[in-house]
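A reminder from the course coordinator: this example appears on the midterm review sheet, so study it carefully.

Given structure:
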Protein backbone atom coordinates (compact mmCIF):
# COMPACT_ATOMS: atom_id res chain seq x y z
CA UNK A 1 0.00 0.00 0.00
CA UNK A 2 1.26 3.54 -0.74
CA UNK A 3 2.34 5.84 2.07
CA UNK A 4 -0.42 7.71 3.81
CA UNK A 5 -2.83 4.85 3.27
CA UNK A 6 -4.14 6.12 -0.09
CA UNK A 7 -7.01 3.67 -1.03
CA UNK A 8 -6.53 4.45 -4.68
CA UNK A 9 -3.05 2.93 -4.87
CA UNK A 10 -3.30 -0.60 -3.48
CA UNK A 11 -0.48 -2.80 -4.78
CA UNK A 12 -1.58 -6.26 -5.90
CA UNK A 13 0.34 -9.15 -7.49
CA UNK A 14 0.42 -9.24 -11.27
CA UNK A 15 -0.67 -12.87 -11.29
CA UNK A 16 -4.31 -13.79 -10.77
CA UNK A 17 -5.43 -13.21 -7.20
CA UNK A 18 -6.83 -16.04 -5.12
CA UNK A 19 -10.04 -15.32 -3.26
CA UNK A 20 -8.02 -15.21 -0.02
CA UNK A 21 -5.85 -12.39 -1.42
CA UNK A 22 -8.90 -10.67 -2.85
CA UNK A 23 -10.62 -10.79 0.54
CA UNK A 24 -7.61 -9.18 2.18
CA UNK A 25 -7.63 -6.39 -0.40
CA UNK A 26 -11.39 -5.92 -0.04
CA UNK A 27 -11.07 -5.24 3.70
CA UNK A 28 -9.73 -1.84 2.70
CA UNK A 29 -12.72 -1.16 0.46
CA UNK A 30 -15.58 -2.82 2.32
CA UNK A 31 -17.16 0.50 3.35
CA UNK A 32 -17.07 1.96 -0.14
CA UNK A 33 -17.68 -0.98 -2.50
CA UNK A 34 -21.29 -1.45 -3.65
CA UNK A 35 -22.94 -4.69 -2.54
CA UNK A 36 -23.47 -5.58 -6.20
CA UNK A 37 -19.71 -5.83 -6.78
CA UNK A 38 -19.22 -7.98 -3.70
CA UNK A 39 -22.07 -10.18 -4.86
CA UNK A 40 -20.51 -10.56 -8.32
CA UNK A 41 -17.20 -11.65 -6.77
CA UNK A 42 -18.91 -14.47 -4.89
CA UNK A 43 -20.92 -15.55 -7.94
CA UNK A 44 -17.77 -15.77 -10.06
CA UNK A 45 -15.89 -17.71 -7.39
CA UNK A 46 -18.71 -20.25 -7.01
CA UNK A 47 -18.97 -20.63 -10.78
CA UNK A 48 -15.36 -21.84 -10.86
CA UNK A 49 -15.67 -24.02 -7.75
CA UNK A 50 -19.00 -24.67 -6.04
CA UNK A 51 -17.35 -25.89 -2.81
CA UNK A 52 -17.67 -23.59 0.20
CA UNK A 53 -13.87 -23.51 0.50
CA UNK A 54 -13.85 -21.25 -2.57
CA UNK A 55 -15.55 -18.46 -0.60
CA UNK A 56 -14.52 -19.33 2.97
CA UNK A 57 -11.90 -16.56 3.21
CA UNK A 58 -14.32 -14.03 1.77
CA UNK A 59 -16.95 -15.00 4.35
CA UNK A 60 -14.53 -14.31 7.23
CA UNK A 61 -13.91 -10.66 6.29
CA UNK A 62 -16.99 -9.21 7.96
CA UNK A 63 -20.63 -9.84 8.74
CA UNK A 64 -21.68 -8.15 5.50
CA UNK A 65 -19.34 -10.35 3.47
CA UNK A 66 -20.51 -13.46 5.31
CA UNK A 67 -24.17 -12.76 4.58
CA UNK A 68 -23.44 -12.20 0.89
CA UNK A 69 -21.34 -15.37 0.69
CA UNK A 70 -23.91 -17.57 2.43
CA UNK A 71 -26.81 -16.15 0.44
CA UNK A 72 -25.11 -16.96 -2.82
CA UNK A 73 -23.74 -20.31 -1.67
CA UNK A 74 -27.19 -21.53 -0.59
CA UNK A 75 -29.00 -20.11 -3.61
CA UNK A 76 -28.63 -23.57 -5.16
CA UNK A 77 -28.98 -26.37 -2.64
CA UNK A 78 -28.34 -30.08 -3.11
CA UNK A 79 -29.57 -32.30 -0.26
CA UNK A 80 -27.34 -35.37 -0.02
CA UNK A 81 -29.09 -37.50 2.59
CA UNK A 82 -31.79 -37.51 5.31
CA UNK A 83 -29.13 -36.56 7.86
CA UNK A 84 -27.97 -33.68 5.70
CA UNK A 85 -31.55 -32.46 5.37
CA UNK A 86 -32.09 -32.44 9.14
CA UNK A 87 -28.80 -30.60 9.78
CA UNK A 88 -29.63 -27.93 7.20
CA UNK A 89 -32.61 -26.87 9.30
CA UNK A 90 -30.27 -25.36 11.89
CA UNK A 91 -28.73 -22.86 9.46
CA UNK A 92 -30.21 -19.47 10.19
CA UNK A 93 -31.52 -17.68 7.12
CA UNK A 94 -31.05 -20.66 4.80
CA UNK A 95 -34.73 -21.00 3.91
CA UNK A 96 -34.89 -17.49 2.47
CA UNK A 97 -31.67 -17.90 0.47
CA UNK A 98 -32.51 -21.04 -1.49
CA UNK A 99 -33.86 -20.52 -5.02
CA UNK A 100 -33.07 -23.97 -6.44
CA UNK A 101 -33.43 -27.25 -4.54
CA UNK A 102 -32.25 -30.68 -5.71
CA UNK A 103 -32.72 -33.90 -3.74
CA UNK A 104 -33.76 -37.51 -3.71
CA UNK A 105 -37.28 -38.03 -2.37
CA UNK A 106 -35.87 -40.34 0.32
CA UNK A 107 -33.92 -37.40 1.78
CA UNK A 108 -37.16 -36.05 3.26
CA UNK A 109 -37.69 -39.03 5.52
CA UNK A 110 -37.75 -36.71 8.52
CA UNK A 111 -39.06 -33.15 8.97
CA UNK A 112 -40.76 -33.04 5.59
CA UNK A 113 -42.66 -29.97 6.79
CA UNK A 114 -39.41 -28.05 6.44
CA UNK A 115 -40.19 -27.78 2.73
CA UNK A 116 -42.93 -25.28 3.51
CA UNK A 117 -40.35 -22.76 4.69
CA UNK A 118 -38.72 -22.40 1.25
CA UNK A 119 -41.03 -19.54 0.33
CA UNK A 120 -38.71 -18.08 -2.33
CA UNK A 121 -37.97 -21.37 -4.09
CA UNK A 122 -38.21 -21.20 -7.90
CA UNK A 123 -36.69 -24.49 -9.10
CA UNK A 124 -37.26 -27.95 -7.65
CA UNK A 125 -35.62 -31.15 -8.89
CA UNK A 126 -36.54 -34.47 -7.26
CA UNK A 127 -35.07 -37.92 -7.89
CA UNK A 128 -37.64 -40.73 -7.47
CA UNK A 129 -35.23 -43.64 -7.91
CA UNK A 130 -35.91 -44.68 -4.32
CA UNK A 131 -39.66 -45.07 -5.00
CA UNK A 132 -41.69 -47.69 -6.83
CA UNK A 133 -45.02 -47.95 -8.57
CA UNK A 134 -46.81 -48.53 -5.26
CA UNK A 135 -45.27 -45.59 -3.38
CA UNK A 136 -45.07 -42.85 -6.01
CA UNK A 137 -48.54 -41.33 -5.51
CA UNK A 138 -48.32 -41.11 -1.72
CA UNK A 139 -44.81 -39.71 -1.88
CA UNK A 140 -45.77 -36.96 -4.32
CA UNK A 141 -48.90 -36.07 -2.36
CA UNK A 142 -46.87 -35.70 0.86
CA UNK A 143 -44.17 -33.61 -0.81
CA UNK A 144 -46.56 -31.28 -2.61
CA UNK A 145 -48.68 -30.85 0.51
CA UNK A 146 -45.65 -29.36 2.26
CA UNK A 147 -44.62 -27.04 -0.56
CA UNK A 148 -45.56 -23.38 -0.18
CA UNK A 149 -43.52 -21.83 -3.00
CA UNK A 150 -44.98 -21.10 -6.42
CA UNK A 151 -42.38 -22.75 -8.64
CA UNK A 152 -41.39 -21.72 -12.15
CA UNK A 153 -39.39 -24.91 -12.87
CA UNK A 154 -40.15 -28.47 -11.76
CA UNK A 155 -38.10 -31.54 -12.68
CA UNK A 156 -39.04 -35.03 -11.50
CA UNK A 157 -36.63 -37.76 -12.62
CA UNK A 158 -36.55 -41.57 -12.31
CA UNK A 159 -40.33 -41.67 -11.91
CA UNK A 160 -41.92 -45.13 -11.93
CA UNK A 161 -44.71 -43.77 -14.15
CA UNK A 162 -46.18 -40.64 -15.67
CA UNK A 163 -49.98 -40.50 -15.71
CA UNK A 164 -52.88 -38.05 -15.54
CA UNK A 165 -52.98 -38.28 -11.74
CA UNK A 166 -49.42 -36.97 -11.53
CA UNK A 167 -50.01 -34.27 -14.15
CA UNK A 168 -53.17 -33.09 -12.40
CA UNK A 169 -51.35 -32.86 -9.06
CA UNK A 170 -48.57 -30.84 -10.63
CA UNK A 171 -50.84 -28.44 -12.54
CA UNK A 172 -53.17 -27.83 -9.61
CA UNK A 173 -50.32 -27.15 -7.16
CA UNK A 174 -47.88 -25.16 -9.31
CA UNK A 175 -49.98 -23.11 -11.71
CA UNK A 176 -47.15 -20.69 -12.60
CA UNK A 177 -44.80 -23.31 -14.01
CA UNK A 178 -42.87 -22.33 -17.12
CA UNK A 179 -40.68 -25.44 -17.33
CA UNK A 180 -41.91 -28.93 -16.52
CA UNK A 181 -39.76 -32.03 -16.97
CA UNK A 182 -41.03 -35.46 -15.94
CA UNK A 183 -39.14 -38.61 -16.82
CA UNK A 184 -39.18 -42.32 -16.11
CA UNK A 185 -37.18 -43.86 -18.99
CA UNK A 186 -33.84 -43.40 -17.21
CA UNK A 187 -34.93 -46.17 -14.82
CA UNK A 188 -34.20 -48.71 -17.57
CA UNK A 189 -30.96 -50.36 -16.46
CA UNK A 190 -28.54 -51.08 -19.30
CA UNK A 191 -25.41 -50.85 -17.17
CA UNK A 192 -25.47 -54.43 -15.91
CA UNK A 193 -26.92 -57.26 -17.97
CA UNK A 194 -29.93 -58.25 -20.05
CA UNK A 195 -31.70 -59.69 -17.01
CA UNK A 196 -31.44 -56.37 -15.17
CA UNK A 197 -32.53 -54.52 -18.30
CA UNK A 198 -35.63 -56.68 -18.59
CA UNK A 199 -36.42 -56.53 -14.88
CA UNK A 200 -36.15 -52.75 -14.74
CA UNK A 201 -38.48 -52.46 -17.75
CA UNK A 202 -41.14 -54.46 -15.90
CA UNK A 203 -41.05 -52.03 -12.94
CA UNK A 204 -41.40 -48.88 -15.04
CA UNK A 205 -44.33 -47.58 -17.10
CA UNK A 206 -41.98 -46.45 -19.85
CA UNK A 207 -44.37 -46.98 -22.80
CA UNK A 208 -48.01 -46.16 -21.90
CA UNK A 209 -49.33 -46.98 -25.40
CA UNK A 210 -51.38 -49.15 -25.77
CA UNK A 211 -51.69 -50.49 -22.20
CA UNK A 212 -52.66 -47.23 -20.46
CA UNK A 213 -53.83 -45.37 -23.58
CA UNK A 214 -55.05 -47.13 -26.70
CA UNK A 215 -53.56 -44.56 -29.07
CA UNK A 216 -51.15 -41.65 -28.97
CA UNK A 217 -54.12 -39.36 -29.69
CA UNK A 218 -55.82 -40.57 -26.53
CA UNK A 219 -52.63 -40.06 -24.51
CA UNK A 220 -52.18 -36.53 -25.86
CA UNK A 221 -55.80 -35.55 -25.22
CA UNK A 222 -55.80 -36.78 -21.62
CA UNK A 223 -52.37 -35.39 -20.77
CA UNK A 224 -53.20 -31.98 -22.22
CA UNK A 225 -56.47 -31.86 -20.30
CA UNK A 226 -54.57 -32.49 -17.07
CA UNK A 227 -52.06 -29.76 -17.93
CA UNK A 228 -54.63 -27.14 -18.94
CA UNK A 229 -54.25 -25.06 -15.71
CA UNK A 230 -50.61 -24.35 -16.64
CA UNK A 231 -51.30 -21.20 -18.64
CA UNK A 232 -47.64 -20.07 -18.59
CA UNK A 233 -46.04 -23.40 -19.50
CA UNK A 234 -43.39 -22.91 -22.19
CA UNK A 235 -41.21 -26.03 -22.01
CA UNK A 236 -42.46 -29.57 -21.47
CA UNK A 237 -40.47 -32.79 -21.41
CA UNK A 238 -42.22 -36.13 -20.88
CA UNK A 239 -39.73 -38.95 -20.47
CA UNK A 240 -41.88 -41.71 -21.90
CA UNK A 241 -41.70 -43.62 -25.18
CA UNK A 242 -44.51 -43.17 -27.67
CA UNK A 243 -43.68 -46.50 -29.30
CA UNK A 244 -45.81 -49.50 -28.31
CA UNK A 245 -44.84 -51.28 -25.12
CA UNK A 246 -44.16 -54.49 -27.00
CA UNK A 247 -41.37 -52.83 -29.02
CA UNK A 248 -39.02 -53.38 -26.09
CA UNK A 249 -40.52 -56.79 -25.29
CA UNK A 250 -39.94 -58.06 -28.82
CA UNK A 251 -36.47 -56.54 -28.82
CA UNK A 252 -35.60 -58.49 -25.68
CA UNK A 253 -36.99 -61.68 -27.21
CA UNK A 254 -34.79 -61.63 -30.29
CA UNK A 255 -31.66 -59.93 -28.90
CA UNK A 256 -31.34 -61.42 -25.41
CA UNK A 257 -32.31 -65.01 -26.21
CA UNK A 258 -28.88 -66.62 -26.49
CA UNK A 259 -27.03 -67.48 -23.28
CA UNK A 260 -23.43 -68.60 -23.07
CA UNK A 261 -22.74 -70.86 -20.11
CA UNK A 262 -19.45 -70.36 -18.29
CA UNK A 263 -18.01 -71.80 -15.05
CA UNK A 264 -16.96 -68.28 -14.01
CA UNK A 265 -19.97 -66.40 -15.28
CA UNK A 266 -23.05 -68.65 -15.36
CA UNK A 267 -25.88 -67.37 -17.56
CA UNK A 268 -23.58 -64.84 -19.17
CA UNK A 269 -25.04 -63.13 -22.21
CA UNK A 270 -23.03 -62.98 -25.40
CA UNK A 271 -23.35 -59.17 -25.62
CA UNK A 272 -24.01 -56.35 -23.14
CA UNK A 273 -27.59 -55.03 -23.15
CA UNK A 274 -28.64 -52.43 -25.69
CA UNK A 275 -31.92 -50.82 -26.66
CA UNK A 276 -34.04 -51.02 -29.82
CA UNK A 277 -32.31 -47.85 -31.02
CA UNK A 278 -29.18 -49.83 -32.00
CA UNK A 279 -31.00 -52.94 -33.19
CA UNK A 280 -31.25 -53.10 -37.00
CA UNK A 281 -34.40 -55.22 -36.87
CA UNK A 282 -36.20 -52.81 -34.54
CA UNK A 283 -35.11 -49.72 -36.46
CA UNK A 284 -36.28 -51.17 -39.76
CA UNK A 285 -39.64 -52.20 -38.37
CA UNK A 286 -40.55 -49.28 -36.10
CA UNK A 287 -38.66 -46.08 -36.96
CA UNK A 288 -41.07 -44.52 -39.45
CA UNK A 289 -44.18 -45.37 -37.47
CA UNK A 290 -42.80 -44.05 -34.18
CA UNK A 291 -41.48 -40.83 -35.70
CA UNK A 292 -44.92 -40.18 -37.19
CA UNK A 293 -46.48 -40.69 -33.76
CA UNK A 294 -44.06 -38.26 -32.17
CA UNK A 295 -44.83 -35.57 -34.74
CA UNK A 296 -48.56 -36.07 -34.23
CA UNK A 297 -48.25 -35.87 -30.45
CA UNK A 298 -46.25 -32.65 -30.63
CA UNK A 299 -48.86 -31.09 -32.88
CA UNK A 300 -51.67 -32.08 -30.52
CA UNK A 301 -49.86 -30.74 -27.47
CA UNK A 302 -49.05 -27.40 -29.11
CA UNK A 303 -52.67 -27.02 -30.23
CA UNK A 304 -54.10 -27.77 -26.80
CA UNK A 305 -51.51 -25.75 -24.85
CA UNK A 306 -51.02 -22.42 -26.72
CA UNK A 307 -48.26 -21.14 -24.43
CA UNK A 308 -46.08 -24.18 -25.18
CA UNK A 309 -42.93 -23.45 -27.18
CA UNK A 310 -41.03 -26.72 -26.78
CA UNK A 311 -42.35 -30.26 -26.31
CA UNK A 312 -40.06 -33.30 -26.09
CA UNK A 313 -40.39 -37.02 -25.46
CA UNK A 314 -37.95 -39.84 -24.84
CA UNK A 315 -37.45 -41.81 -28.02
CA UNK A 316 -35.87 -45.01 -29.21
CA UNK A 317 -36.07 -43.68 -32.75
CA UNK A 318 -35.22 -39.99 -32.85
CA UNK A 319 -36.27 -38.14 -35.99
CA UNK A 320 -33.14 -35.95 -35.79
CA UNK A 321 -30.67 -37.06 -38.45
CA UNK A 322 -27.37 -38.19 -37.00
CA UNK A 323 -28.57 -37.82 -33.40
CA UNK A 324 -28.10 -40.41 -30.71
CA UNK A 325 -31.49 -41.94 -30.18
CA UNK A 326 -31.34 -43.04 -26.56
CA UNK A 327 -31.26 -41.76 -23.88
CA UNK A 328 -31.32 -38.48 -25.80
CA UNK A 329 -34.71 -36.91 -26.38
CA UNK A 330 -36.41 -35.69 -29.50
CA UNK A 331 -36.58 -31.88 -29.67
CA UNK A 332 -39.84 -30.22 -30.44
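Designed residues:
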Amino acid sequence: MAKGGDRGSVSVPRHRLSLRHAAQVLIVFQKSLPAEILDAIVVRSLAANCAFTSIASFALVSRQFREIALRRYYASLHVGSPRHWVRLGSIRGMYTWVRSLEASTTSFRYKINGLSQFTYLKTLELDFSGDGLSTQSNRIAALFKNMSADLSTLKLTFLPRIDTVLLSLVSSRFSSLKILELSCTERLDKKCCWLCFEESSSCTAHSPVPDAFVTVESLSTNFCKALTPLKSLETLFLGIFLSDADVLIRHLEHCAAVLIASPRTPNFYSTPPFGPNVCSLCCTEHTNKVQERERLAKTLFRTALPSLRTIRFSSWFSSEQGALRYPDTTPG
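Strands lie at 76-79, 100-104, 123-127, 153-157, 179-183, 235-241, 259-260, 268-269, 310-314, 329-330. The longest helix spans residues 280-304.
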